[in-house]
Every structure is written in C-alpha cells, then in structure tokens.
Specification:
Blueprint lengths: L2 E7 L3 H10 L6 E4 L16 E2 L10 H20 L3 E2 L3 E5 L2 H17 L5 E4 H7 L9 E5 L3 E3 L1 H14 L3 E3 L6 E4 L5 E5 L2 E10 L5 H7 L7 E11 L10 E4 L9 E4 L5 E4 L3 E2 L10 H14 L8 E12 L7 E4 L6 E5 L5 H18 L25 H10 L6 E3 L4 E2 H8 L8 H8 L12 H12 L26
Parallel strand pairs: 1-2, 1-12, 2-9, 5-14, 12-20
Antiparallel strand pairs: 3-8, 4-8, 5-7, 6-7, 10-11, 11-12, 13-16, 13-17, 13-18, 15-16, 19-20, 21-22
Helix pairs in contact: 1-5, 1-8, 2-8, 10-11, 10-12
C-alpha cells in the first residue's frame, strides 16, 4: 500500500492547480480523479473567462482569492505553455439602474485591487465593438480580463505536477475514507487502497459526498446548471471583447466570449438542480442564451451555432455564494476546497496557494524542492506553424503530414503525441481536449472514425473498446475499414 503526504481528491482545474503547487515542495503527493481523464467535470463546462475580480463582495473569500489568481495567469501561461488571450471585458448597462449597479461594481473592484477599471460611455464602447445594441449606454470596462481554455489549463497543471513527481491517477473514484488512530487516512477506490497524512477535497460537485465518506457534514452542495453555445470561427462581426450584461444576484448573466481558439462562446444560464450529473441541454435554456446574447449583439447569427453543451457549477448552500476553503472543524488534516463556482477558473492558482498555506498551518512541513522545474514543454501544434516549420516536422515524422481533422488542421502525429503524452489520452474526448480534433465545424462528423482507428492501433485495443469519455460510451461495434494505417 502506497503512503503519501497528501492525497488530492478531484482532478479538475482546482485539484490540478493544487497538485501543481504542492509539486514545488519535498512532499509525496497523489491526485485521484474518478473519471477517465482530468478536467472532465465542472472544469469543462464553462467559458474560460479569467474574471478580473470586480464582482466578489469585498472581504469575502472570493474577493481575496479572485484577483490574486487572475494576476498569476500571464506568468503561468508562459511557464506552462497554455493559450491565453487578453480581450478585456465590458459589463454593459442599459438603464439608469444599471449605471448605479456598475458604479457599485467599480467600487467593489477598486476595493478588491483590480487595476485600470473604468466606466465608459456608448461611444467608447462602440469604438471597440461597433455592433453593440443601440440601447447600450455605458459599461464597466476591465481591460485586464483574460480568457483561457479551462481544460487545457488543467492538463498543463497536471502534466507539470506529474513531471515534478505527483502521481496522477485517473478512473479512481473514492469509495471509502477511514481516519486511523495515528492520525493518517486510509482511502479506498474500487481497485486499490492508499494511505496519506492529509487529504485535500477538491471533488467539485461531489465534495460534500467525499466529505461524508470521512464522517464530515459541514456543508451541503447543489449544482447550478448552465447551458452554453459554441459558434463557428467564421462568424461575421465576431466580438473582440468579453461582454456581460449588468449582473443579477446569482449569475453574471449571459455573456459573449471570444475564445483562445477563435470561436465565440455564449453562456450561460443558471438553474439550481438536484441531480449532480444533469449535463443535458434544455430547449428553454438554449433559447434564453440566444435571446440574451441578442440583447448585447442583435446581429449575432444563431445559425453559426455548431455545438451546445452544459456545465454544473458547485454551490455550497447557505454560504453567501462564497467558496468554502478550510480545514475541517471535526477531522484534523482534512482540507476542503469546495464550492468552487465562478470565478473558479480565475481563482484556481490562488486557491492552490491558500490550500498550501492551510496544509502548512495544519502541521505539514513545506520545504521547497531545489530541482523543481516550473516549465512545461508543449508538443507541436501543426496548424499554428509556418510552412517551413511544418515541412521540417513532416521530414522528421511523416505522421505530421497526414491531416485527420480538416476543420482544425489536426494531424495524425499530434493525435499520437496525445495518446502517449505525460497524461495520456485514452478516449475520443481526451484527444479532442488536447488536440481539438472534433472541435471544428463538423463536430467530428468526418474525423471521428479516423481518431478511433488511431486510438485502437496505438492502444492495442479493438475499436469496439474505444470510448467517447467514460466507461460504457463505446462508439462502434466491429472493425473500422479504411482507417488511418
């Protein structure tokens, strides 16, 4: 039985950020993720906005963490080689009441330490976004706002953590937790038992379920469901700026978000649910998104929607809509990182620092590694290379000369790299998250069978065993004819 100083439960952007932070220290660390890949829960169900920090109530945990996390992203993007853009953000007001609310948010942002915030008028808005609704009168402008790809960030955190010694263990749902007399923990999964001195619970929508396994009932959670839309890259009049309407009490409203990869995302709705696996889209939600974005951009073409998806944001009830990050009051050594709803992506790096400090306060000796490597080398992205660079790559490996996904110009070489990467891709969606094969206009209509064939060949599995995501999601029966050889 393996013993670790820390076991992190949950492999989303929060858990992987914590693993990345802990990998800097002379500690033995493991991360357990119940799914087949990291970043497949709440992390993949959002628009990727790194909120600058004007929204949280000053003095709240969100307020303390949001701005710090957002400020960490530019350096993390350079070190870990993930995509980031800086489109800035408008929070748009249409009425006098909205103007008062925006001034209130401006005050919040200044108190929280957000840089360069300003209220701007309609002419200033339209000089940047000429297709805004005619009745948009002013906006809170946050020029420091950035956008990332959340699951790319989670993969980058996990890969760097693993390269620095963290065990990343997928398909490992936790089934039992026992506190031993010596103060350590025993953790059971379906196929192994592990022990550790400290647990960090970053299990997203299931954080309260994991806590109950350890006999802890300090909070209750419900998911907030949100529908989202993805629009094609060739959409005319694409927004250059992240744009939100003036926010409500529980949601920032339906936003229009330019992405790292050139698409536009519209999202999201906000409906409290009882079902923690309710990832279906609902027609009223989709219509609410279309109607909502048309209030900001009336000319946006809904015919350019290429995909709908949904996310579940983890909400701790009766907690003032705040994060719940603390050591358990009843079980020493059990650290909660729960209720990481918006601005969870922005806050993740600072949540990791907060958890690090909680572990230190709880008695774990934190000594920096002299040989820690902060950098992550990223495999080539063929479609971003110059012709000469592409030719050079093909000369080294002809697999880079075989295009598999035409929409996103993804090659066989990139897919093979992903299958044999530091955090290996074993499913169609894992390939999609790493390479974007299947993310384009046809949404894998032309390339899926080729990706299945490559996965089958590289993993030594029959095509009937290749899954979309989790176990039981096989896509084919029998053999693939005419696949990539």
């Amino acid at each position: 039985m393996n013993h670790y100083d820390i076991i992190i439960i949950g492999g989303g952007i929060t858990g992987t950020a914590i693993a990345h932070e802990c990998s800097k220290y002379k500690l033995t660390v493991a991360l357990l993720e119940r799914g087949t890949d990291i970043g497949i829960g709440a992390t993949k169900g959002n628009g990727g906005v790194v909120h600058p920090g004007y929204d949280p109530t000053p003095g709240s945990l969100k307020a303390k963490i949001n701005v710090r996390g957002a400020n960490l992203y530019p350096k993390l993007a350079r070190d870990l080689n993930f995509g980031i853009i800086n489109p800035g953000m408008f929070v748009i007001g249409f009425t006098d009441a909205d103007e008062a609310a925006l001034k209130h948010k401006l005050e919040f942002g200044i108190k929280n330490g957000v840089r360069d915030l300003a209220i701007i008028n309609a002419d200033q808005m339209r000089s940047r976004e000429p297709h805004l609704a005619a009745n948009a009168r002013y906006a809170l402008y946050a020029p420091t706002a950035t956008v990332v790809d959340p699951f790319e960030v989670a993969i980058a955190f996990a890969e760097n953590a693993k390269a620095n010694g963290v065990a990343i263990l997928t398909s490992q749902p936790v089934t039992a937790i026992q506190k031993k007399a010596d103060g350590s923990f025993l953790i059971n999964t379906p196929d192994q038992q592990l022990s550790c001195s400290y647990i960090v619970n970053a299990a997203g929508n299931h954080a309260d379920d994991v806590a109950r396994l350890a006999g802890i009932s300090e909070y209750q959670m419900k998911p907030r469901h949100g529908d989202l839309l993805v629009l094609d890259k060739d959409m005319v009049n694409k927004p250059k700026t992240v744009m939100f309407p003036c926010p409500g009490p529980d949601t920032k409203g339906i936003a229009c978000i330019p992405t790292v990869h050139g698409n536009t995302i519209v999202g999201s709705t906000a409906t409290m649910m009882d079902d923690k696996e309710a990832l279906n889209n609902y027609a009223p939600g989709i219509q609410a998104l279309i109607d909502g974005v048309h209030k900001i951009l009336p000319e946006l073409d809904a015919g350019k929607i290429i995909r709908t998806f949904a996310g579940l944001r983890p909400v701790v009830l009766n907690n003032n809509n705040d994060f719940f990050i603390a050591e358990s009051l009843t079980v020493k050594g059990f650290i909660h990182a729960a209720g990481i709803q918006s601005p969870g992506v922005a806050s993740a790096p600072a949540i990791a620092e907060t958890v690090r400090d909680l572990l230190d306060d709880a008695g774990l000796e934190m000594k920096l590694k002299p040989d820690y490597n902060p950098f992550r080398e990223k495999k080539p992205v063929f479609g971003t290379l110059s012709i000469d660079e592409q030719d050079f790559l093909i000369q080294k490996n002809p697999a880079y000369g075989r295009i598999v996904c035409r929409c996103e110009t993804v090659t066989e070489g990139e897919i093979v790299d992903a299958i044999h990467g530091i955090i290996p891709a074993r499913t169609l969606d894992a390939i999609k998250r790493r390479t974007r094969a299947g993310m384009g206009r046809c949404q894998s209509g032309f390339c899926q069978y080729k990706v299945i064939s490559i996965l089958s060949r590289e993993l030594g599995l029959p095509v009937s065993d290749i899954c979309l995501e989790d176990r039981g999601s096989q896509q084919l029966c029998g053999s693939v004819k005419g696949g990539v050889k």
